[in-house]
Design brief:
The complex is a heterodimer of chains A (125) and B (107).
Chain A lengths: L2 E5 L2 E3 L5 E8 L7 E7 L5 E7 L6 E3 L7 E6 L4 E6 L8 E13 L2 E9 L3 E5 L2
Parallel strand pairs in A: 2-11
Antiparallel strand pairs in A: 1-3, 3-8, 4-5, 4-9, 5-6, 7-8, 9-10, 9-11
Chain B lengths: L3 E4 L2 E4 L5 E7 L7 E6 L6 E5 L3 E2 L7 E6 L2 E6 L9 E6 L6 E2 L3 E5 L1
Parallel strand pairs in B: 2-11
Antiparallel strand pairs in B: 1-3, 3-8, 4-5, 4-9, 5-6, 7-8, 9-10, 9-11
The chains are: A mainly beta (125), B mainly beta (107).
Chain lengths: 125, 107
């Protein structure tokens, strides 16, 4: 079974740091691009960060650029998100998700599948 | 950045109803348009990829259509397990962006 399990969330004060982890199983982790997506309480989905399968390409949402760092360890089937200088507006459920691509014939696209269960980050004093 | 606008933001419908949700992009997103379903307390799951392709295991009452900037998710006959929030997502241009969501509630 393809599975993603996040951990590392918790309560942190503004300005603090937290490191999220996501362990993958059931597929060849090193072959897939990965992403972090977050959801503030009662709000919609917001893409946070992307990393290529080798780790050589990385992108961030403007809202976290310079504060968050995505990384991966393909030997450990793990994805990480180092979050520094946390703000109240970073409070959210953080999901890791695999990016699936298809570029054959008439089907050109990519999608997120599966998603982990999420880990909650609360930034509050 | 590409803005994704979903409408309506919420709707009430009865079992058996045909439901249509629309998603409009601020510029063309080609075929890089997906639909996700999220039930309360659960992670999102993909329903439709590349505009109109049904993800494995998703019931055939779900369908997607559209092109360029205008897309539609249709549920042909609403079932009890379909009450959820639905999101569109584009990945044609970075950064990836989601629509604001459409909450489907029981009438």
């Amino acid at each position: 079974e393809v599975q993603l399990v996040e951990s590392g969330g918790g309560l942190v004060q503004p300005g603090g740091s937290l490191r999220l982890s996501c362990v993958a199983s059931g597929f060849t982790f090193s072959s897939y691009e990965m992403n972090w997506v977050r959801q503030a309480p009662g709000k919609g989905l917001e893409w946070v960060s992307y990393i290529s399968n080798s780790g050589s390409s990385i992108y961030y949402a403007d809202s976290v650029k310079g504060r968050f760092t995505i990384s991966r360890d393909n030997t450990r089937n793990s994805l990480y998100l180092q979050m520094n200088s946390l703000r109240a507006e970073d409070t959210a459920l953080y999901y890791c998700t695999r990016e699936v691509r298809r570029n054959s014939g008439v089907i050109k696209g990519d999608w997120f599948d599966p998603w982990g269960q999420g880990t909650l980050v609360t930034v509050s004093s | 950045d590409i803005q994704m606008t979903q409408s309506p933001s919420s709707l009430s419908a009865s079992i058996g109803d045909r439901v249509t949700i629309t998603c409009r992009a601020s510029q063309s997103v080609s075929t890089y348009l997906n639909w996700y379903q999220q039930k309360p307390g659960k992670a999102p799951k993909v329903l439709i990829y590349a505009v109109s392709n049904l993800q494995s295991g998703v019931p055939s009452r779900f369908s997607g259509s559209g092109s360029a900037t205008d897309f539609t998710l249709t549920i042909s006959s609403l079932q009890p397990e379909d009450f959820a929030t639905y999101y569109c997502r584009q990945s044609y241009r970075a950064p990836v962006s989601f629509g604001g969501g459409t909450k489907v509630e029981i009438k």
